């Protein structure tokens, strides 16, 4: 998932490591904690070894050739390669079980504007099934064991159930929009409208 996020961000513009960390935090929002920043540089090295990204640093010999790719201090700046663009297209087109989990779904959703409609629908429907299963599991726990749970554990289970129900409603709205060819309401999102946590 971090590989997908890095390649997606580098398609927007070349960046150095600090900028990538900052953009990951901005783009991925609440799920950024699930992606360890300790894995950022190893992932960058792996992508570089695979030829998906290249680095440029400002030196007197090449300063005129790559001024847009370097910071004033000459820090390493990463840029995506043609191979990296192909790898991003391959990753963004995936719609398997790993794209329905919390982190996988969040990263894919962050790049939905570059994902085709059929793939978006498969991911949204898969995520809805996963959350419905989670919701039914919580309902089962509450139905069978509520009397054995202390008040705080019971409240935590109810909170989880409420969150699942909100996310299912949100996903159903997104699926309906996708099927009708409408994009999510950006104005509502800017105002703090509905979403999986609302």
Automatic annotation (TrEMBL):
<dbReference type="InterPro" id="IPR036388">
    <property type="entry name" value="WH-like_DNA-bd_sf"/>
</dbReference>
<dbReference type="InterPro" id="IPR036390">
    <property type="entry name" value="WH_DNA-bd_sf"/>
</dbReference>
<feature type="domain" description="Transcription regulator PadR N-terminal">
    <location>
        <begin position="6"/>
        <end position="90"/>
    </location>
</feature>
<dbReference type="InterPro" id="IPR005149">
    <property type="entry name" value="Tscrpt_reg_PadR_N"/>
</dbReference>
<dbReference type="Pfam" id="PF03551">
    <property type="entry name" value="PadR"/>
</dbReference>
<protein>
    <submittedName>
        <fullName>PadR family transcriptional regulator</fullName>
    </submittedName>
</protein>
<dbReference type="InterPro" id="IPR052509">
    <property type="entry name" value="Metal_resp_DNA-bind_regulator"/>
</dbReference>
